Amino acid sequence: MDSTYIQNSIAQLKADIFIDVRHRTLQKYTGNPVLDENQLFFLLVPFFNGEEWRQEQTEAAITVGIVYAALAAHDHIKELDATSKDQQLTVLAGDFYSGRYYEILAASGNVGLIRSLSQGIAARCEHQIKVYEHEVRTVEQWFAAVENIEAGLIGQFFDLYGFGHYIALAKKCLLLIRLEREWTVHRNGQESLLNIYIKKSAIHEGTTYDVVMQNKIVQLKTELMQDIKQSSFLQQDVKQALEARVEANLVSTN
Question: What is the pTM of this model?
Fold first, then answer.
């Protein structure tokens, strides 16, 4: 298995998701659904690693991808201008994607997947809501919330199909990638809501945003690379793919 095969598999999963949520008007004004290729990669890691993978798992992975697309659409609404035509259509896109995954789940009759995703969506939304609340939280609580937002649904998918041993890797890697993205936003002179709240929590703990972000990113990189090397269940080519995925998203913390 080489990088081309992996990218082709991710592209196929993305194409399958697009087919299931295609809508001409929404596509015209909002473009294709927002899909994170790192999340799609982790949905397919058990498949890349030679686990038993049937059509049911493929269909479930597509459904999880649609859920992420729906949540991403709602997350991308601009806080200060939610009344413009583009923003209203983005809301509708998120609602449309939500309707599609409910429709697909109902048609599949996969009760286990319905229960699992329902729990995952509820937990993910609870953590996302925290970003809009004005409660004091520790920096580590923010990191835990981000971890769930990025990887919680993938963890539910893994649990359902007996891939639980992949969860820790997915959580650490997707958290690392998100924090690196937030760090880049900060260094470019912009601030997300998440960055603002992490900064407030860091100050409350007597430190700085730069220190807590740099320390967490370095910690996650170190732990993740060690975990990949020591994971006996991973095939060598999958280890290399995981390491490459981590390296591709590295940013300087100097």
Answer: 0.84
